Amino acid sequence: MAEPASPGQTGTGQSAAQPAISVRGLRKSFGRKDAVAGIDLDIGRGSLAGLVGPNGAGKTTSLSMMTGLLRPDMGTVLINGVSVWADPAAAKAVIGVVPAEVRLFERLSGQELLEYAGRLRGLAAGEARQRAGQLLDVLDLKDDAKRLVADYSTGMRKKAALGCALIHNPQVLFLDEPLEGVDPVSADVIRRLLKRFADSGSTVLFSSHVMELVEQVCDHVSIIAAGRIVVTGTMEEVRAGKTLQQAFIDLVGARGTGGEGLSWLGSSSS
Amino acid sequence: MARVLVQLKLRLLLGALRASNGARVAFILSSTLALFVAIGTFAGLAALRHNGAAVDLTAVVYTLFALGWVILPLVAFGLDGTLDPATLALYPLRTRPLIIGLLAASATGAWPLASLVGSLGITVGLAHGALAVLIAVIAAVLQVLFCITLARFVTTALAGLMRSRRGRDLAALAIIPIFALYEVFAQVLPRAIGKHELTAASFAGVDSWVRWLPPGLAAHAVQDASTGHAGTAALRLLLAAAVTVVLGWLWARALSRALVTADASTQTATIKGGALPFGRRGGLSGTIAARSLAYQRRDPTFMAYLGITVVLMAVVSISSLRGSHPEVGVLLSAGIGGASVGMQRGDAFGLDGPAFYLDALSLSGRRALRSWFAGQNAAVAAITVPLILVIPFVLAVISRHPVNGLLAMALGLAATGAGLGIADLFSAALPYPMERRAGSPLPRQAEGFTMQALAARFGGLIATAILVIPVIVAIADTGSVADSVRIPALIAGGAVYGALLAWAGIALGAAVADGKLPELFQLAARSKL
After folding, report:
1. How many angstroms away from the CA of A115 is the closest CA of chain B?
2. Which of A5, A63, B420, B452 has the most CB atoms around its CB within 10 Å?
3. Does residue B85 carry a pLDDT above 70?
4. Residue A105 at interface with chain B, using a CB cutoff of 8 Å
């Protein structure tokens, strides 16, 4: 069983190098509600890490603060040793982000959107165009490259957003619920791309509440509940011989009564 | 079924009223407006008694009502839950009871009642004698039934399209003719009537074709009954009723189809080229400008903004063009054009919405923000400046004083620069999320941000007006200088002054936005576009 998260802890066993993502004392409150109540987290380089937790646990808030999109009340975030909040320009240059609700520039075509993302990241026009084409190809969006993003399905949007996040070849990739609302074929495309990306030495941190997915692809997992990291470690450490689903339920606690009050429900009743 | 659907409509309305203050205010405004329309139409139609063109005018008014019934539900698609067949598609309903139920639901509400009360004005205006009054009552009821059936048929036939992206785009663009019509009724017609350029006689004979449409048939039936041609009157009413029944049958067919089919036109829509313009040059500004330019051309919001600007520019000047000071109207047109661009662009981050995360992840520092604002301004200017130069010039040519159009160019350039500059400053200083609500084709400020939006818009208008005073003074004070010197100097001066103001706005906007990108993004992310 992995230990509860503590400052300085690294989960992947690659602590010889500086962690790719290092979070200390990260806090955010909205009014009286502590959305993130002080989290510490280290993700080693080359790791494919999952951040799992129930709805409202603080996953999106945490990822937004780690990527410079939401100002924390307290705490530090280092990406490859660069502070996101002290030197945002340097930190932003090495990260790619796929937000949970993928709302993109809908009046651009897929090709234009990826090119736009590349140009924003300082790629030369020709390079941006070439990489956009290659990414659209790998993401299975080539046939839809000239269609407006407004006419894309959820899965296509997620893939387009992933293309935007990868076009500048970031060292660290953050994804918030990358497979939410994505069909199995697109999900497989995304999963394989993430694996390939992490295998090349880059780091991926993604949030999800689909345990099977995290179990399949991640080598490191952190469980977050009520704004705190409950446990963090390698997959084997966190699972401790059980399935991740069971470990998660044991740690976070099952909720609800299982519907004992719905005696009328089902074909055996009339 | 009729009772269930009427109850559904009332419950939906009550639910909306309980949910938000905005809905309550909108309901009170809409009901008050309906009351005014009912009383105004009734009084207007009644006042036509003894008027030579009474039947022509009544036919025109009835036809306009029918047009209103067709257009408004399309713009307000999504506002009335019972309008969209998709909401009913899951229930095991037969078409005939569904049609009757939907008809009953459509006839429930302030506006159908207002239409009926207003249409009954015909009993006073056109009907002479008891039989004619009876025919008039039937004609008024038939007119309202025709309006409702026509509206339902059109909405149902277009429901698949209206649910699609392309349909919503078209609905947003419909705001331009509606705004133009409103301006014509609110500004142009009252002035024309005041100057006796438009009288009842202007409408004589206008119904030569309108009379064969159901609204015209209804009006002429009453006229026939009043002049002792009861048979012809009955025939006309029968014809109008037959058309309504045929429409009802078409609606039933459209409804059965709409319940099981979806619009697929956007599934195959592609854009030409496919690569981002300004591909080779322009750096960050060029990249932002390329994206913004694509939006100017493809997003109906911006097309609608542009259309509204054009209508405003024409309307403010039209009445003075034939007067003794046509230059005032032409200059006002240019000034309003520039100010309106500024007012519409005064929330750049909110208009970008959640997609701004892409920019927020890449921008850092004041210099990048200056490029961001400059790129946005360049794209807006590329589309609007030609219009702001050409429209006042055309108006000046119409008023036979083309020189005024050239002078207006100086003011237009300065006003556009001022408008864009102020918009950048307000975008950074007073950002607010925008949202596109059902029933509103253009995005508006999210609930809770009304004061901020009003401050930004009117602040922009007032600030632009103040900033262009030097140009107006320069135009007024140089009347004695030869045109060959005066006009080029004023245009160049206006252009330089406008560019300086725009640049100052970019610099100030970037300075204010610097360091608060996460906060700007969080506001933009709350936009629902």
Report:
1. 7
2. B420
3. no
4. yes
Q: Residue B347: what residue type?
A: D
On whether any CB of chain A is under 8 Å from the CB of B43, the answer is: no
Interchain proximity A103–B267, CB inside 8 Å: no
Q: Residue A110's closest CA among A63, A167, A26? A: A167
pLDDT at B203 over 70: no
Q: Record the tokens describing residue B55, joined without a space.
A: 């039947």
Q: Which residue carries 């195959």 as its tokens?
A: B268
Query: pTM value?
Result: 0.79
Gap from A157 CA to chain B (nearest CA, Å): 12
Residues from chain A that touch B269, judged by Cβ atoms under 8 A, are 147-148, 151
**B383, two tokens:** 């589309």
- Which of B140-149, B261-270, B430-439 has the lowest average pLDDT? B261-270
Average pLDDT over residues B129-148: 93
CB contact B264 to A (< 8 Å): no
Domain A1-94+171-255 CATH assignment equals 3.40.50.10800 = no
Give the best-scoring range by mean pLDDT among A80-94, A240-254, B315-329. Answer: A80-94
Q: What are the domain boundaries of chain A?
A: 1-94+171-255, 98-169
Instruction: Provide the ipTM.
Output: 0.87
pLDDT exceeds cutoff 80 at B190:
no
Nearest to B359 among A107, A120, A129 (CB): A120
Nearest to A112 among B275, B299, B521 (CB): B275
Query: Which among A89, A126, A129 has CB closest to B365?
Result: A89
Residue A47 has pLDDT above 80, yes or no: yes
- Say whether residue B298 is in contact with chain A using an 8 A CB cutoff: yes
- With beta carbons less than 8 A apart as the criterion, state whether A95 and A168 touch: no
* pLDDT band at residue B178 under the 50/70/90 scheme: confident
Q: Does B364 touch chain A (CB under 8 A)?
A: yes
Tokens of A114: 């990826």
Chain B residue whose CA is closest to A166: B358
* Mean pLDDT (chain A, rounded): 87
**Contacts by residues B258-261 (CB-CB < 8 Å, ≥ 24 positions apart):** B258/B85, B258/B86, B258/B156, B258/B157, B258/B159, B258/B160, B259/B85, B259/B86, B259/B88, B259/B89, B260/B89, B261/B160
Q: How far off is chain A from B277, nearest CA to CA, in Å?
A: 9
